[in-house]
């Protein structure tokens, strides 16, 4: 069955006049004339077949049916307004597709994203992870993040974060076997990652102790697993300073040595030149640069 609806503009005028208890005040709110309000209310009353207001000179007072109608119409218009505002919010919401390496996304970007969303509620970041070459991602992301600069035709590259690698471990590891110099590592387990097999050998050589024998070594196949193993107290990892910075700040990890530091990644953003004028993307890139400045560390 089709809905029987009165003239919708007349409903809006009636609600304003009834809520404000004045045709003049309703005219001011709706930016129309007093006469227009009176005509619209009269049209609605004629459609309904009874009066909604009593005219008392220049004053108007709601009748009993008018009061009952106001409570329903006002609630209905509120629901329409809320639904409309939600649709407008969806329309205004801008989506930025960001692609980043998995460990970087887990250890650095995701923990910071809530701050970006709080200050930029109209921008939604949709994050995916991969190590695909930049040029293969043209239609899949708006901003790509990679450790180290890649050649990508048509893309603008900006470095925003640099880091070094240092040994890192849970404080409880040092409680059982304190570390005062490199030779104390002999009492500890060194954590290795399959994709970075030579880090510990490189660091020990930089310390002048390349043949140090340690109690145990444990290898994991993903770097984020190695860092989690360090947090859980399984041993000591070679930690990129940016990716463990929050854990160090919050006391889950510590650096037992100040150096020597091995060079690590210099993270860059990649945006195709066709997207450079997008205000939301530029807002995100500015945020990346400012945040990266806080966490950057050079050898």
From TrEMBL:
<feature type="domain" description="HTH lysR-type">
    <location>
        <begin position="6"/>
        <end position="63"/>
    </location>
</feature>
<keyword id="KW-0238">DNA-binding</keyword>
<dbReference type="InterPro" id="IPR036390">
    <property type="entry name" value="WH_DNA-bd_sf"/>
</dbReference>
<dbReference type="InterPro" id="IPR005119">
    <property type="entry name" value="LysR_subst-bd"/>
</dbReference>
<dbReference type="InterPro" id="IPR000847">
    <property type="entry name" value="LysR_HTH_N"/>
</dbReference>
<keyword id="KW-0804">Transcription</keyword>
<dbReference type="GO" id="GO:0003700">
    <property type="term" value="F:DNA-binding transcription factor activity"/>
</dbReference>
<dbReference type="InterPro" id="IPR058163">
    <property type="entry name" value="LysR-type_TF_proteobact-type"/>
</dbReference>
<dbReference type="Pfam" id="PF00126">
    <property type="entry name" value="HTH_1"/>
</dbReference>
<comment type="similarity">
    <text>Belongs to the LysR transcriptional regulatory family.</text>
</comment>
<dbReference type="GO" id="GO:0043565">
    <property type="term" value="F:sequence-specific DNA binding"/>
</dbReference>
<dbReference type="InterPro" id="IPR036388">
    <property type="entry name" value="WH-like_DNA-bd_sf"/>
</dbReference>
<dbReference type="GO" id="GO:0006351">
    <property type="term" value="P:DNA-templated transcription"/>
</dbReference>
<protein>
    <submittedName>
        <fullName>Glycine cleavage system transcriptional activator</fullName>
    </submittedName>
</protein>
<keyword id="KW-0805">Transcription regulation</keyword>
<dbReference type="Pfam" id="PF03466">
    <property type="entry name" value="LysR_substrate"/>
</dbReference>
